[in-house]
């Protein structure tokens, strides 16, 4: 008795009549040998994708997909992956545990906070009914070295490519923050969306503490943390326009904008 | 089955270079890709996200060369499976870093009639699930494919079994579906 193997799959992909006729009959009954082979080998053609589409269509995911909102953070990662010539690297590392608060005397970075919404009527960020709340945001950054050592950074600090930057913020209100990274001469790129709580907290998402990997970076890098109060959530494009619009645009907006600049030294064996 | 209704037009627009079409394709298909990858329980959430990203980067880069727009969904899911398997095998040290599962070539994907067999295929899936003997495998398959809420990792916790055991059960069941659909292909259903 013949079972599926690489040669048989090639013959089936070419639709050789003898192979098609034989396996059409053979596969009409359960066959552990053939099923084991099918489980570990792709094809023929797009059969694997068709099988998965059928399996997924049996549940609720296909229906949910029709109404799913765009995962902006995920799509931003994909866009960056499409543009980048570097190999796929993990931009976001998830560090275990919280940053020890004692390591972090908060460094107040240049802050361009929102003005009173009452005087912001008519600015470019619309779409929110009623006056929005204001929020103050301050940012501190710690570098975690390749050896696990944590060190607090001052703005404009030199960091190593192997460092991962961990962020801690102080917010006066609960809200939402978007984190962007900007390289010299390029536009800001969205890294993630995070909930903000009033008080001092580590920046973290649903999967835990967030860190910015500097792998593949070189030269000046700016991190922008942009907060909005309450349930007001500006789109990434809106925030991007504010960031590239300079200080005037930032002062006009209702957003709390903080930045932290570092200079990445490329190469090994540094710190 | 081919790409769902409306998806094919977005694929064509993306192939023509319309940026907004890529975001729409991502929005519409990410839940399917994420669900597929969630079946590989040994991958942690960070690895799952990486696999999803890698899948879309590869697919979108190659999309302008995709011969059959109607085959996009099956092609995308094939890439996702390959990426997840590669990541899993590298994690288990059964595949070297430089080795890779080859993705289907976009220039040679076959024509797949639009949504031709979807309802019948879903019936095949449901029938084979119903025919499974009562037990842990059937419960696992129902939780993942029919209820469709829990990831394989979460199912492992719920059932109190190892992560790999859940993925093995899902893969074993999937291989039965694959055998049945292959038989139907050979019987000429798409000819």
UniProtKB/TrEMBL annotation, chain A:
Keywords: Membrane, Transmembrane, Transmembrane helix. It comes from the Bacteria. The chain crosses the membrane at residues 89-109. This is Uncharacterized protein. It comes from Pyxidicoccus fallax. The lineage of its organism: Bacteria, Pseudomonadati, Myxococcota, Myxococcia, Myxococcales.
């Amino acid at each position: 008795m013949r079972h599926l193997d690489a040669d048989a799959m090639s013959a089936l992909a070419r639709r050789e009549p003898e192979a098609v006729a034989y396996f059409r009959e053979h596969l009409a009954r359960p066959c552990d040998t053939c099923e084991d082979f099918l489980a570990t080998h792709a094809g023929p053609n797009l059969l694997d994708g068709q099988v998965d589409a059928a399996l997924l269509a049996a549940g609720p995911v296909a229906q949910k997909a029709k109404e799913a909102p765009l995962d902006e953070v995920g799509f931003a990662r994909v866009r960056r992956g499409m543009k980048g010539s570097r190999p796929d690297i993990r931009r976001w590392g998830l560090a275990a545990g919280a940053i020890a608060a004692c390591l972090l005397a908060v460094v107040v970075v240049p802050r361009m906070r929102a003005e009173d919404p009452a005087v912001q009527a008519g600015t470019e960020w619309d779409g929110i009914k009623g006056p929005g709340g204001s929020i103050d945001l301050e940012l501190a950054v710690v570098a975690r070295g390749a050896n696990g050592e944590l060190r607090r950074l001052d703005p404009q600090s030199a960091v190593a490519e192997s460092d991962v930057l961990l962020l801690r913020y102080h917010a006066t209100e609960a809200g939402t923050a978007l984190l962007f990274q900007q390289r010299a001469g390029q536009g800001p790129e969205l890294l993630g969306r995070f909930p903000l709580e009033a008080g001092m907290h580590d920046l973290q998402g649903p999967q835990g503490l967030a860190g910015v990997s500097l792998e593949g970076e070189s030269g000046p890098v700016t991190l922008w943390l942009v907060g909005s109060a309450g349930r007001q959530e500006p789109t990434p494009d809106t925030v991007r326009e504010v960031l590239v619009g300079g200080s005037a645009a930032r002062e006009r907006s209702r957003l709390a904008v903080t930045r932290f600049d570092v200079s990445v030294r490329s190469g090994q064996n540094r710190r | 089955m081919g790409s769902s209704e409306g998806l094919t037009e977005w694929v064509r627009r993306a192939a023509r270079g319309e940026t907004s079409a890529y975001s729409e394709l991502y929005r519409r298909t990410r839940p399917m890709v994420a669900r597929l990858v969630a079946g590989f329980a040994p991958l942690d959430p960070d690895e799952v996200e990486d696999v999803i990203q890698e899948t879309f980067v590869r697919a979108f880069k190659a999309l302008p060369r995709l011969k059959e727009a109607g085959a996009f969904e099956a092609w995308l899911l094939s890439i996702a499976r390959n990426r997840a398997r590669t990541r899993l095998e590298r994690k288990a040290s059964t595949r070297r870093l430089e080795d890779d599962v080859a993705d289907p070539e976009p220039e040679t994907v076959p024509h797949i009639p639009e949504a031709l067999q979807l309802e019948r295929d879903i019936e095949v899936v449901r029938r084979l699930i119903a025919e499974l003997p009562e037990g842990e495998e059937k419960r696992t398959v129902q939780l993942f494919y029919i209820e469709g809420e829990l990831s394989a990792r979460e199912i492992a916790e719920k059932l109190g079994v190892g992560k790999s055991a859940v993925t093995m059960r899902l893969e074993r069941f999937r291989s039965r579906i694959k055998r049945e659909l292959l038989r139907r292909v050979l019987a000429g259903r798409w000819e």
